[in-house]
Input
Amino acid sequence: MHMHSDPPDDRDALREKIIGLGETSLHKSYYPELQSRLAELERFRALLDQTHDAIFLIRADTGRLADVNASAVTYLGLSKEELLAMPFASLIAPHQKAAFLETVRKSNEVPSGSRRTCTAYLVSREGREIPMEITVRSVIFGDEQYIVAIARDITDRILTEEELKIKESALESSTNGILIADLTGAIMYANPGFASIFGYEQDGVFMGKNLEAFFATPSVGEEITGHLLDNHTIVKETIGLRSDGSSFHIQVSGSVVQNDAGEPLCIMLIVMDITERILTDQMKRKTYEQLGKNIEQFAIIGDHIRNPLQVIVGYVEMIDDPLAEKILEQSCRINEFVTQLDRGWVESANVRQFLRKHGDGGEPPLQTFIHIGATKEEDP
Amino acid sequence: MIQRSQLDLRKFVAPEFICGHGALQLAGRYARNFGMRHVLLVTDPGVRAAGWTDAVGESLTEAGISFTIFDAISVNPRSRQVMSGTEVYRAEECNGIVAVGGGSPMDCAKGIGIASSNMRDILAFEGVDRVPVPAPPLICIPTTAGSSADVSQFAIITDDVRKRKIAIISKTLVPDISLLDPEPLTTMSPELTVDTGMDALSHAIEAYVSNASSPMTDVHALEAIRLISSALPAAVREPHNLDLRFSTLLGSLHAGLAFSNASLGAVHAMAHSLGAACDLAHGRCNAMLLEHVIAANYEAAPDRYDQVGAILGAAEGGRGTPAENVAAFRRSLGVTETLAAVGVREDAIRTLARQAYADPCMVTNPRRLTCEDLERIYAYAL
Output
């Protein structure tokens, strides 16, 4: 003990402390520290109760629940007291119980701390089966071995996966070519339809190739990418290039895939082989052109008949001939024939307009026909 | 005759205690040091009316500690009252208990503590060492000089249903700190002063002759008998004399330290049974039974009883047997009733004896008494 030669400044205060009456002259007590630890545990407990995952503490020897968090109570609709009176396995759907117990058994065999994950359905009080991804882990508290099971509700995940499967299946089964590329044009995905259109046997050979490889004019790929980044959508007809080097007509519809912030992630193109349609259009266009020419010939023929007929009618009206009346009568009949031809042409115009409208949508030689019809209707 | 050796294994448990004028005002400091945030202040209507509850409340408030008062406690606290207090303790989210009062509030406070920490009915703890989880911190401020509940490992609770007192004995019942202030004793009535004083004297005598006594408990027991025999009659005459009150308080403290570790005997076993059946003040029951039990036990510890008799005889100037000297001391304090006078009928003796025989205090009585022995003692006291 260190002894001072001079008396302490405050003997009375020191004496009080020696007697044990000082403000901090405390008897040994663990209670304040215990309170502090309990408060810490309560805070941690509150955190566990806030999590959406259901947490179960299972006694390894009996399989009974030793503790659960609030989410477990909420998911299962059972009170904490009810849960603590039952084995965890009784919460598993009957058809999955054996598989789950096997997972637990394996987790017991591995060193404490390592985890195993399985998927199982937990059954609520109402009998609803909740799909859960359950991670089990063996732990030791004190001298007792426990299993911590953390169950995550994967109902939404399963629905999302099913939706994705449907979408993926739709992509894979589409006869149109569907292609996803990054913003530089490098291909990330191409469906079997795309491979078929471009003459490739496997759809995986596209990975890493650039768009330009699939157009007769390579710069088209870059044009499409640039247009999409500026305008976000595109519909374009162009010439594609097959794997054997042959070209064909294609229609490309594209859009930019964006994230939630509106930033472009990649581009998606839908490619259709329109060769047949293009050839049909060309043939139709030629047919309509020929039809227009033929109709024009009809108009000329009509004029060629009417002009001499006018001359004949004028001449007969000026002469006094017993046959004049007969000639006029026959001339009128011929004029009626020609007029009926004109009417037939007008009616055929409606038919051809219908063909153009519901055929290929191409520009028909309609103006020529209307012009002829109008001329005839102006004639007396 | 009890065969004893000073080499026998013994254990001595005592709480931290502060004694002296003004000790009551330290309640807030110690509550804060124990980490109490909201205190259940356990008391009774009489102590509250005397102003001591408010004095303790002020100390808690000055220390920044909030509190809820629970005073629905009668003499001989009931199990129902303990459980009501437990509900209040939980509902108010208390984390510590301060008891201010005599034996009833302090025993009730102990009961509330263990019932809340173990979340079980108080009657489940009857017997010895049957409290698995310790109670929250308990600060005791005695306002009587007799029960020594502020330093003991005992709590006596009356079973409402079976109309009998149960003894709960556990080291977990020893309070964490006792604040022994003589001032609250000044408001005790002469009758309460005598009853509690005789209780303390019974504690000291029974501890001294107990078959579990030890050199440590002997020191405290003899000092308690000396202090009480000299100071108690004077304190009755001069109730506001702080020195005399403090001597009785010290006497009670010594007696408490002695009996809490050496335990008690037939006087208390029989008083528990009698008090529960007739709802009599515990100290008064002891006073009426003490000399009769001494007479019955005398042959088992004659030297010790003689020493007790000598101390009391010296105080009273008597030269009789120990039992006679105790009787004389009782009478000098004005306690002259018999059991019959307080309403005990002869036909109740058998039941009283049977219940007393089952009391844990009988285990440390210096003489192994039979149930019939107890019946005879009750009969003498009628």
Observations:
- Confidence is low (pLDDT under 50) at residues 360-380 of chain A.
- Residues 275-318 of chain A form the longest helix (44 residues).
- Chain A has three domains: 31-158, 177-273, 281-378.
- Chain A touches chain B at residues 20-21, 23-24, 26-27, 29, 31-32, 35-36 (CB under 8 Å).
